[in-house]
Amino acid sequence: MRAGALISLASLVAATQHQHTFQRTGQRLESCKWRPPSPRLACAIDEDEEQKPWTEAQVPNEETDLEPPPSRWEGPHGCAGQYCVFANKGFASGRGIVAITTTQNIQRLKQIEKDEYPPDEKPQPDSPPPYVVAAVQGKGLGLLANKTLHRGDTIMKKTPAILVHRAFFESVAVAHQPQDALLDSAVALLPPPLRKEFLAQMGGSPSAILATNSFQMDIGGGGGSGDGHHYGNFPEVSRLNHDCRANAAFHIGADLAHTTTAARDVDPGAELAISYIDPLLPRAARQQRIRHAWGFACGCALCGSSHKAADKSDARLREIARTEAALADFTDASVTARVLGRLVQLYADERLDASVAGAYTLVALNYNMLGDAGRAQRYARLAHEALVIEKGAAHGDLAEMAELARSPRAHFTWRARVRR
């Protein structure tokens, strides 16, 4: 148990050091918004695969029943090698989903559905969303809060419209036309309302939409081989614009749902935004990544600030990196209560409300190592709250923070720095 806690803490430190990883731990799915390196890389058609090649005859009729069909996976509706189109118009209480993936991954998706969407569970009626889609100056369409939101309020929770195996884009080479045709047939299989939402996203063609508006996610399995790695497209989520100091955080759960949560209080009429990239990068690196991956210049308040203000921000970010490296080293004698307080202040000054869970976790553990039970409990509770917002209610570090908040003196870190 103790070793597991340290490994989990190390993963938080790694995340703080700007590393995105694919992993499934317990009941959570790690994700980040990331554009595929080339939307036109496709997979080779395997002559030996006993799968159906794509044909135009397999594009479904536009007509569909108004009543949501029962949940049932159907397909393959055409293949390129081992990657085939499968559809389930009844998935998630009739929302629907289409996947371009392997038959092994369809079995995983069936198991996820069995675990997370019991067939006898009655669908919950949709409540009015706490946002409206509206024009945002210089950004096109975006989401504006239509009521006061408080930290921890759910903004939206959506399952993917389309899942595409990562290797379908990246690992193989086949003519562009078959790949695009397979993507077109996948979109045509979506229920009409969801298809309309998908096609309304920026990009135009299905491949360009997926390249611009998808999130990395891992549906598990593969024994570390990466076979569960997919890109998931959530049309409603794509309306959230980028901000380097986002007021919303997101995670993808074991039920495949993308949950967006308010990371700080938001006034009515304010734009809701997430960060497409690591917000702990300096300004020049953030701008370069945004331009390279999405083709626009970040115009958020931080990136648009003066050179003097940007330099001060970058200096704070460098100090955060140095401080967190020291806190992660339990033998570092330079760690004091003053250092911990300074780190919390740096995060507040940088307005990193959507990326503070790892820092609060380190601060809680280190206050306990210094023998300050009261502050250890306080920051363990704050870390617990932030982990739920940023990582979801199944994250592995939640139990550790709950234990620390409940009994700091019984925790394995108690006075660990004092004893050295």
Automatic annotation (TrEMBL):
<feature type="signal peptide">
    <location>
        <begin position="1"/>
        <end position="15"/>
    </location>
</feature>
<dbReference type="Pfam" id="PF00856">
    <property type="entry name" value="SET"/>
</dbReference>
<feature type="region of interest" description="Disordered">
    <location>
        <begin position="45"/>
        <end position="73"/>
    </location>
</feature>
<dbReference type="InterPro" id="IPR046341">
    <property type="entry name" value="SET_dom_sf"/>
</dbReference>
<feature type="domain" description="SET">
    <location>
        <begin position="129"/>
        <end position="277"/>
    </location>
</feature>
<keyword id="KW-0732">Signal</keyword>
<protein>
    <recommendedName>
        <fullName>SET domain-containing protein</fullName>
    </recommendedName>
</protein>
<dbReference type="InterPro" id="IPR001214">
    <property type="entry name" value="SET_dom"/>
</dbReference>
<dbReference type="InterPro" id="IPR053185">
    <property type="entry name" value="SET_domain_protein"/>
</dbReference>
